[in-house]
Amino acid sequence: MQQNPVADALVLITGAARGMGELYARRSVAAGARAVALWDIDEDAVTALAADLSRSGVDVRGYRVDVSRREQIVAGLAEVREDLGAPDVVINNAGIVRGAPFWEHDPERDIEATMRINTLAAMWLTREVLPDMIADTSRPKRVLNIASAAGTLANPNMSVYAASKWAMIGWGESVRLELAAHGHRHIGVTTFCPSYVSTGMFEGARGPLLTPIMTPRTATAAAWNGMLRGTPMVLRPWTVKLSMALRGILPTAVWDFVADRVFRVYSSMDEFTGRG
């Protein structure tokens, strides 16, 4: 029987104070994790959640870490190692979105911040934990990257967000292949690509045709189960795969018409407001 990668493991979750991050934390506790390290920029919220989850008897600790800063990731991981040990499971969940035409993005506040939080943070953190994961072959290890369907198809009014998720997908898949090629098959890398999820992050966005906006519980369950199995990519709902297939076989002009006029993908962000 395959060993449960979460049971008796140390799980580290970024963007853990609320939304899907909180749900991954609760799943980790319920799955029998030895300890859970919660990272978030909101110190009060992450401390309160850690205190709540610690009532279960699991050692849950909250840390204020701004993952857009590599030096904070390095320092935060050193603190986790001192307190709890080396992580066995890392969930790269932290993310932000800016919905506007590209030319309206502020270079630092929008473009640089999005790439740092959505992409570089996952790379920096995973680079720091992989040597320990590679060295310890006594149990399965996992890296779960929360990407987006926006990383599989272009969409107006989310160019920088889409770019950050395209980069995460390409990077995550490449790391997965590198680990397998070098014999480190005890480490599973899973990339989760959901369409819109009702966390408030995409408030105002409309789901395309046949693509309902998912609840956080539905989305986290799909990502979690894929991570446990070591599934390389998890795409939800099924229309994400359909769109990828159609985009791959149709001429660009035809796909643009289908995406815009039939599936209404290109207008899904027209009424986006985001989290207040």
What's the layout of helices and strands?
Elements: E1 10-14, H1 19-30, E2 35-40, H2 43-54, E3 59-64, H3 70-83, E4 89-92, H4 107-135, E5 141-146, H5 159-181, E6 187-194, H6 216-229, E7 233-236, H7 238-249, H8 252-262
Parallel strand pairs: 1-2, 1-4, 2-3, 4-5, 5-6, 6-7
CATH architecture: 3-Layer(aba) Sandwich
Helical segment tally? 8
Mean pLDDT: 93
Poorly predicted ranges (pLDDT <50, ≥5 residues)?
none
Number of domains: 1
Description:
By secondary structure, the protein is of the alpha/beta class. It is 46% helix and 14% strand. The protein has a single domain, classed as NAD(P)-binding Rossmann-like Domain (Rossmann fold). The chain has helices at 19-30, 43-54, 70-83, 107-135, 159-181, 216-229, 238-249, 252-262, and strands spanning 10-14, 35-40, 59-64, 89-92, 141-146, 187-194, 233-236. The chain has a seven-stranded parallel sheet with strand order 3-2-1-4-5-6-7, with helices on both faces.
